[in-house]
Structures are given as C-alpha cells and as structure tokens.
C-alpha cells in the first residue's frame, strides 16, 4: 500500500507541466521577495517609532527642567520681596519712633522751662535746633538705608551664587543624562544598522539563489522563451479588435440616427421626387452631409418671422453650398410664415441670405405659408422645370 501511494505521488509530480513549474518557481520568488521587503519595512518602522519616542522623551525632560528652573526663580524672587518688605517695615517703625521721641522731648521742654525764658528765647534758635535735628535724622536715615542696601546686596550676591551653583549642577546632570541618552541612541542605531545589514545580506543571498534557480529553470525550458511575446501579441490584437468594435458601434449609432429621418416620394408633373425631410436642430446638422451625394435639388426653408436667426441660417446655407456633392444642385428657398404681421418679404430675405452672390448657381426664392399652402406649388413648378431642363 505505501508503494502505491508513492507511485501516485510520483505520477502527480510528473503530471505538472513545464509552464506550471516555471510559474510556480516565479511565484515562489515573488513571495520570498515580498517577505524580505516586508521585513525591511517592519525594521524601518520600528527604528522610526523608537526615534520618535526618544525625541518625545527629550522634549518632556527639557520641559520638566524649565518648569523646575522657573519654580526655583519664583521662590528666590518671593523670598527677596519678603525680605525687602520686612526691612522697609523695620526702617519705617524706627523712623516713626524717633519722630515720636523728638516730639515728646520738645513738648516736655516747653512744659518744664520757665515762661519768661521761653518767651525771651529767640525763635531763631528753635528753628536752628529743629533744622539740625532734621538734618541729623536724614543723615541717620541715609546711613541706615545704605547699610540696608549693602546687606541686601550681599544677600542677593550670596543667593545669586547659590542659584548659579544649583543651575550649574542641574546643567551638569542634564548634560550627563543627554550624553547617556545619545550613547544609548548611537548604540541602538548601530545595533539596528547591524540587523539591517544582516537582513539585506540574507535577502540578497536568497534573491541571488532564487535568481540562479530561475536562470537554470529558464535554461532547462528554453522553448518557452517566446511565450510572453506571443502573449503580448495576442493581447495587442485583442485591444485592436476592441477598438475596431468601438468604431463600428459608433458608425452603427450614426446610421441609426440617419435612418430616423422621414423619406417620402412625391410625384408632381410626371416627375418623381425622393424627398428627405431632415431636421434643423444643432445636434442633427452634422448629419446633413450624408444626404449630399446624388442630390439634384435643395429646398431650404427659412422662418421669415425670426429676424434674429437669419444670419445663422445664412451661415448654414453657405456651408452646405460649399460642399462638392452640391455643386450642381439647384436651390429653392421657401420664405415660410408670411401670414405673420412682422414677417420679412422675399426681397429682404434675399438680401439677408446674400443670394445675389451666388452667380454660378440656379436659385429661386418663394414666399410661402405652410398652414394654408400658399406659394408651395409655385416653388415646386420652378424646381420641376429646372430639373427637366437639366435632363
């Protein structure tokens, strides 16, 4: 039983055609290339994510340092303001006490001194005494303020030195942290570069190996070298046939649009007229040229009441008469709607259409009214006579 199974498996391997085997090898090579490319993309994405994370951490650390530095400066400034406030308060209390003692002394001197001496004492001495006292107070206050400023300056220098030392210490710590982070980042990049190099080497080796397998397979199956050329040729022929089909479809649609016009056969004075009634819409005008061949007479109907579109009618008429198929055709113009009050007469329409410029063509204009039939037979008589004379 196992021998039969092995024979069956061998038969299935033999049943694989050469084209299927080549296609299988090609698909396997594409799959291995896709796997290698996917590994490279995953590795690059990992490196990008890691770099973004490290940049984010550095930004957070810098923000923390700035916040700590701001809090330290705020605390030092608050302490300085508190000390200045205390010093000002003490100096104010001292000056106030001195003034109070001076006033008390002066009042006591006035109370205990005899009245005759007080009255006899010159006022000038009192003013000089007061001035000297005020001057002494000012000098003392200036000295106190100078001493306070000196003390404040010394304290601020000490605080500045301490703050500078703290900032230097924090700066050194941050520099060390930054250096460690940079070293770690460099190590991580080096490791990632090594991994990338190993992956590229492995992928290139696998690609070379696969390319060698494919080259050997191609050499083994040299008869299939022109397979893709034949396939491309068939594909191009298919595209050409599709394009030709589109062109034939468009021509069929044009012919269907042409066959929608009314065709009538009219007999008048022993002459059979095959009349094609074509419309005057803008989308139908390009189809007029299909009726010019073997045309002996042209009947052009003009709306006599529409003065605004006479120039457009003239352009269309001149465009038709310029065709080679209508070189020998006679021209009959029906000036229709003559029953309306504002309708143009035949002479005015002749000038508007520029019929006098048609020197080498037989033309005739007839005023008509389609509702009553006036003028139709006169125009057909002229057309019949012209066609008889041509015969």
TrEMBL record:
Pfam families: Arf, NYD-SP28. Keywords: Coiled coil, ER-Golgi transport, Golgi apparatus, GTP-binding, Lipoprotein, Myristate, Nucleotide-binding, Protein transport, Transport. Residues 37-68 form a coiled coil. Residues 27-107 form the Dynein regulatory complex protein 1/2 N-terminal domain. GTP binds at residues 280, 336-339. PROSITE patterns: ARF. One of its GO terms (biological process) is protein transport. GO terms for molecular function: GTP binding; GTPase activity. One of its GO terms (cellular component) is Golgi apparatus. It is found in: Golgi apparatus. Transmembrane segments: none annotated. Belongs to the small GTPase superfamily. Arf family. This is Dynein regulatory complex protein 1/2 N-terminal domain-containing protein.
């Amino acid at each position: 039983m196992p021998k039969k199974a092995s024979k069956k498996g061998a038969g299935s391997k033999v049943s694989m055609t050469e084209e299927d085997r080549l296609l299988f090898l090609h698909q396997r090579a594409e799959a291995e290339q896709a796997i290698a490319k996917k590994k490279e993309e995953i590795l690059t994405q990992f490196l990008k994510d890691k770099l973004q994370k490290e940049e984010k951490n550095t930004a957070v650390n810098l923000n923390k340092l700035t916040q700590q530095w701001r809090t330290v400066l705020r605390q030092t400034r608050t302490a300085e303001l508190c000390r200045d406030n205390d010093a000002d308060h003490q100096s104010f209390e001292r000056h106030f006490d001195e003034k109070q003692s001076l006033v008390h002394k002066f009042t006591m001197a006035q109370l205990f001194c005899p009245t005759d001496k007080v009255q006899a004492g010159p006022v000038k001495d009192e003013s000089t005494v007061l001035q000297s006292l005020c001057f002494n107070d000012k000098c003392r206050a200036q000295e106190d303020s100078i001493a306070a400023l000196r003390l404040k300056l010394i304290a601020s220098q000490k605080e500045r030195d301490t703050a500078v030392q703290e900032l230097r210490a924090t700066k050194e710590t941050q520099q060390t942290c930054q250096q460690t982070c940079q070293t770690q980042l460099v190590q991580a990049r080096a490791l990632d570069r090594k991994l990338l190099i190993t992956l590229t080497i492995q992928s290139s080796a696998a690609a070379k190996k696969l390319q060698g397998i494919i080259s050997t397979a191609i050499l083994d199956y040299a008869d299939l070298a022109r397979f893709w050329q034949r396939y491309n040729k068939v594909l191009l022929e298919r595209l050409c046939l599709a394009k030709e089909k589109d062109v034939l479809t468009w021509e069929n649609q044009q012919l269907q649009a042409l066959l929608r016009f009314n065709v009538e056969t009219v007999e008048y004075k022993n002459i059979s007229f095959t009349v094609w009634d074509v419309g005057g819409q803008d989308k139908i005008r390009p189809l007029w040229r299909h009726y010019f061949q073997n045309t002996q007479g042209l009947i052009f109907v003009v709306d006599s009441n529409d003065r605004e579109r006479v120039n457009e009618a003239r352009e269309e008429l001149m465009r038709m008469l310029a065709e080679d198929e209508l070189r020998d055709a006679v021209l009959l113009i029906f000036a229709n709607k003559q029953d309306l009050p504002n309708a143009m007469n035949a002479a005015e329409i002749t000038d508007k259409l520029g019929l006098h410029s048609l020197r080498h063509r037989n033309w005739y204009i007839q005023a008509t009214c389609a509702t009553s039939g006036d003028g139709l037979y006169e125009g057909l008589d002229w057309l019949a006579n012209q066609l008889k004379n041509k015969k």
